Amino acid sequence: xxxxxxxxxxxxxxxxxxxxxxxxxxxxxxxxxxxxxxxxxxxxxxxxxxxxxxxxxxxxxxxxxxxxxxxxxxxxxxxxxxxxxxxxxxxxxxxxxxxxxxxxxxxxxxxxxxxxxxxxxxxxxxxxxxxxxxxxxxxxxxxxxxxxxxxxxxxxxxxxxxxxxxxxxxxxxxxxxxxxxxxxxxxxxxxxxxxxxxxxxxxxxxxxxxxxxxxxxxxxxxxxxxxxxxxxxxxxxxxxxxxxxxxxxxxxxxxxxxxxxxxxxxxxxxxxxxxxxxxxxxxxxxxxxxxxxxxxxxxxxxxxxxxxxxxxxxxxxxxxxxxxxxxxxxxxxxxxxxxxxxxxxxxxxxxxxxxxxxxxxxxxxxxxxxxxxxxxxxxxxxxx
Length: 384
Prior knowledge:
This protein has 384 residues and is mostly helical. The chain has 2 domains: 10-314, no CATH class; 325-368, no CATH class. The chain contains 16 helices and no strands. Helix 2 (27-52) runs antiparallel to helix 3 and helix 5 packs parallel to helix 12. The longest helix has 32 residues, at 187-218.
């Protein structure tokens, strides 16, 4: 239903049974997209809780994902993007501890399940390639031989599906999903969207980066660290003509997990610093502060709620032109950011906190029905 030929087909295949039952409609496409968003938030919370055992911070991490302006923008829409992010997140959460599973059969089942999720993500939208790269980099660092063997199998299955679709469509699959997506790159759009991403999510990005650095120098890099780096790098493609803030959705999911784990470790006093050249260099400076360790931990406990409060204020979004929201907006200093009646962030340089539209008015509804009547009156098929 409403198929877009320059994307893979899985999302639309999932929606197809609804057409058989309900006919052509938008509501079930929006429902599927929104359910994917909710499942992603639950997976984020589950991942943080599994790593830390702190249910409160796990819940805050999942809710932080839903609170993001970018997720608020695209989460409820009839688009495949959030379904892709759902599959990506499930894949990473499933594969997180796969190398530590001693039972071979169980490890094989978990590995296949996780890689199947990546394959599903890729055949939902091509951007999932970054998650595949991040995951296989993690697997290769931990177990090179196993990663190569499963990588060959993954490539064969994915390639066979690709070849089958391309043959079935007489080459249109390659033309529409690959060639048609090679668009003009607009550097200012990329830089603007990176600024927007950091401006909105900086309170979580900094803890996420600190955890990645901690893992790099004092522990082992987790799958979440590889995923975060790959997703943030992949967001550079947001500068393509036709791209937008949605290209950061995967990075936001990874950020919420890493920042949640960071916050939980602060609360749980879960930091360990094994002896290495950095601890030896820092030891003379930190030794006089050892009597203040309890005070430092107490101060850190205050920092964690401040992180989430700061993030909540940064991503605050609400209608500004209708009561009672206008009163709240005035009190909090929230300004409208789409004054030109153009609400697609992909079509202009990022300048606001997110393009989330405006409160639907009767004039909007009347204009919409006017368009519908023109479409109905047009002879033949309509491309709109």
